[in-house]
From TrEMBL:
Heterotetramer of 2 PreA and 2 PreT subunits. Keywords: Iron, Iron-sulfur, Metal-binding, Oxidoreductase. Residues 341-370, 371-400 form the 4Fe-4S ferredoxin-type domain. It comes from the Bacteria. It comes from Aerophobetes bacterium. Belongs to the dihydropyrimidine dehydrogenase family. Involved in pyrimidine base degradation. Catalyzes physiologically the reduction of uracil to 5,6-dihydrouracil (DHU) by using NADH as a specific cosubstrate. It also catalyzes the reverse reaction and the reduction of thymine to 5,6-dihydrothymine (DHT). It is an enzyme of class 1 (oxidoreductase). This is dihydrouracil dehydrogenase (NAD(+)). GO terms for molecular function: dihydropyrimidine dehydrogenase (NAD+) activity; iron-sulfur cluster binding; metal ion binding; NADP binding; uracil binding. Its EC number is 1.3.1.1. It catalyses: 5,6-dihydrothymine + NAD(+) = thymine + NADH + H(+); 5,6-dihydrouracil + NAD(+) = uracil + NADH + H(+). InterPro entries: 4Fe4S_Fe-S-bd, 4Fe4S_Fe_S_CS, Aldolase_TIM, Dihydroorotate_DH_cat. GO terms for cellular component: cytoplasm.
Length: 401
């Protein structure tokens, strides 16, 4: 069996999976469940500064699943492209309650998992207060949230406003690093022109690791009411749909940033955890999968990752970190206009649904008298759209000549 342990920001973790700062880490009891389930550590639900204390109170209800269509015959077989649209913000605890809960958490879990705190300020004056409130907590590291997707709606200097500006983000990281004894880990926002530049400035300011990245701000509209759905304001937008977007940012950061990276936003299957590590992550955080599937999924992930690594001959996550770069080239170097590539139909599998001729923009697909698709290789451009939409998987692509 592979050794899944990793070193992250100076912390030895039994495996790279972390429970993200979310409902699953809202208090000591919940964090114990995370560690019991198999997570290598927890990132505590963020303690919010006094200037945004209103965000410690949660709207009810606060979760909505968009594009959510589980099978009625097997409700636990959930779709994997849905959106978690939500308005839950910071921890419900004040400064003292939060610190006391961290102590309870350490008593409950002992040394079975890492505790990574998380703080979020609504103004520059909040940061010293927050540091003072948590400085003596029995934590292994401290994540600082520079990225909450909807906090600008509460306070002008919070959330993505901080994380999008490299100098401002670095100023905060430097301030917190100098005030604290813990390794400091800024959590970045994808809502910026260049997350790589922000990460580099945070690293220069003393960050021990970087978390990439939080969710995005969004708005879902009920057109019959001309109103936002569920709650009348902007909300966070995350879930499995974000995976490929998040992988791209991780891959951008990995060659440039020297400190360890933590991946979050988009994890749903065990394979997603592996993909995140292959893109450069040292640790992988998850939230939505736990909210929707429950804690049992963690053991399923770990067992599957172990089995896969054994079959592939890998002994450690270190061996696959950044592995995707061995097979990536610049877009300017990819093969283009390869001759001989066109779609082909397996007529025995075609059901005659009529989908592919309707969408072919090259007029290459016709139907015979039975409705079976015919593809003219001379007209086919080889774009692959019919291959992708075919519900019966009757279409394949030929190889270049």
């Amino acid at each position: 069996m592979a050794d899944l342990s990793v070193s992250y920001a100076g912390i030895k973790l039994k495996n790279p999976l972390l429970a993200a700062s979310a409902t699953e880490t809202k208090d000591a009891k919940a964090m114990k469940k995370c560690i019991d389930a198999g997570f290598g550590g927890v990132v505590v639900k963020s303690l919010y500064g006094s200037s945004i204390a209103i965000s410690r109170k949660w709207h009810r209800p606060r979760f909505q699943l968009l594009n959510w269509h589980p099978r009625s015959t097997n409700p636990l077989k959930a779709p994997d492209g849905f959106i978690l649209y939500s308005i839950e913000q910071g921890s419900q605890f004040d400064y003292k309650e939060w610190a006391d809960d961290i102590r309870r958490t350490r008593d409950l879990i002992g040394d079975r998992g890492a505790i990574i705190g998380s703080i979020m300020a609504g103004s520059m004056s909040d940061w010293p207060e927050l540091c003072e409130a948590v400085k003596d907590c029995p934590m292994d590291a401290l994540e600082i949230d520079l990225s909450c997707p909807h906090m600008k709606e509460v306070h002008a200097e919070s959330g993505v406003e901080l994380g999008a500006d490299p100098d401002h983000a670095a100023e905060i990281v430097k301030m917190v690093v100098e005030a604290m004894k813990f390794p400091i880990i800024p959590k970045l926002t994808p809502q910026t022109a260049n997350m790589v530049q922000v990460a580099r400035r945070c690293e220069e300011a003393g960050a021990a690791a970087i978390t990439s990245h939080n969710r995005m701000m969004s708005l879902n509209i009920d057109i019959d009411r001309a109103s936002p759905t569920v709650w009348p304001c902007y909300a966070g937008w995350g879930g499995p749909w974000m995976l490929q977007y998040s992988l791209a940012w991780m891959a951008k950061l990995y060659p440039v940033v020297k400190v360890p990276l933590s991946f979050t936003s988009g994890i749903w299957r065990w394979q997603d955890n592996v993909s995140a590590i292959m893109a450069g992550a040292t640790t992988v955080q998850s939230c939505t999968a736990i909210l929707v599937k429950g804690f049992d999924v963690v053991k399923e992930w770990l067992d599957s990752i172990n089995d896969w690594m054994d079959k592939k001959g890998y002994s450690s996550p270190d061996e696959i970190r950044g592995a995707v770069f061995e097979n990536m080239i610049p877009a300017s170097e990819i093969p283009r206009h390869q001759p001989g590539v066109h779609a082909e139909v397996d007529k025995g599998e075609c059901t005659g649904c009529g989908w592919c001729p309707k969408i072919c923009l090259y007029d290459a697909i016709t139907e015979d008298e039975d409705g079976i698709a015919n593809i003219d290789p001379e007209k086919c451009d080889g774009c692959g759209m019919c291959w992708q939409v075919c519900p019966s998987k009757a279409i394949s692509m030929s190889k270049p000549s």
